[in-house]
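chain below, 441 aa
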Amino acid sequence: MLSPLANLTYRHLFAAQVLSLLGTGLATVALGLLAFDLAGADAGAVLGTALAIKMIAYVGIAPVAGAFVHLVPRRSLLVALDLLRAAVALALPFVTEIWQVYVLIFVLQTGSAAFTPTFQATIPDILPEEAEYTKALSLSRLAYDLEALASPAIAAALLGLVGFHWLFAGNALGFVASAALVLTVVLPSPKPPATQEGAWGRITRGARIYLATPRLRGLLALNVTVAMAGAMVIVNTVVIVRVGFGLGAAELGWTLAAYGAGSMVAALAVPRLLDGVMTDRTAMMAGAGLLVAGLLLGLLVPSWSMLLPLWMLLGFGNGLVLTPSGRLLRRSAHAGDRPALFAAQFALSHACWLIAYPVAGRFGAMAGMPATFLILVVLGAMGLVAAILLWPRDDAAEVEHIHDRLPPGHAHLGDVSPDPTGAVRHSHAFVIDDLHQRWPR
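prediction:
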């Protein structure tokens, strides 16, 4: 499980990720307190708008960044984005108007929308062996889950000693430390895209590859299921625990911890499951099935003691779907197209969350928790059924296909001879590119 950390470059990048995540977690707590300081009882509306701005930045900026990251050395880009985010974090304590919060959040999340897909697309180049890359994906998932557990506790401890504005300084320190760690390693040079296209073609290339690849169309449908279950947890846990069961902040913390623990167990289990026990498709479909089943069981939960294992089940399903997703992206594009493809996944998955958050929040406020569980079950089940239909069970790496437009002797065809119709049939690891613009039937 820990063997990828033997690679010096990956070890430093993983440490940079952990420090950056911890800083972001501190800022999440501080942002809530800042919103209350500026808006009082309307703090929820301010945070809701800030969350919407975050998602809009992710959906709109990530594809643009993914199209042009190859023009800048990766290390320089990642360091510059870390320093940009650090500067924004340091500016947040000094805002006096709500609109200033919105502007700074947009700049901060624009930096994240460029940083995260670039970081994710770098890891397959550092760890080319699939087994090691799978373990790295599990470590990354663990980092996210540990941040969700550790950051609130660290923030609570710090708030007993200093004002909440200093939490933004902790966020900035995390970004600066991340930049310093990135500077200590040499990253692979970004490979140019596999084609020369105009600006719009580059911006949309990742999404075109994504939507033309059956396994990735299935992944998009699974993202819908993940978003519906995750939004229920993130948006409505506080309502269920505090209002539904009449419990306090400690029980709320334990409930969210149960969800994180379930996801961590999945992250630890995925490398073993994918080592000859399950295929990516089987594991991810099973995870989505657990999410749908968990939402359905939410209609029947009578007490907090039953909510804890249910939230752990949802966390496990979440981890089982999300942890292997990088493997699908890695095998679905040439190295030069990976940044654009990871950016497309980043944008499209967050578009699902942009829909799921208001659905969970609005239905929860207007119709109550049973109706909210029910609507999210329906939407999550639709995502699972779509994934089963869109992602073929026989998802072989090498696909036999026909070229009927390439001239004889083309370098891609090698010494394969055409059949009597003039078409050339051959087989290789298939990805969408300029020579293969449609998936074979």
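The mean pLDDT is 82. The radius of gyration is 23 Å.
thats it, cya
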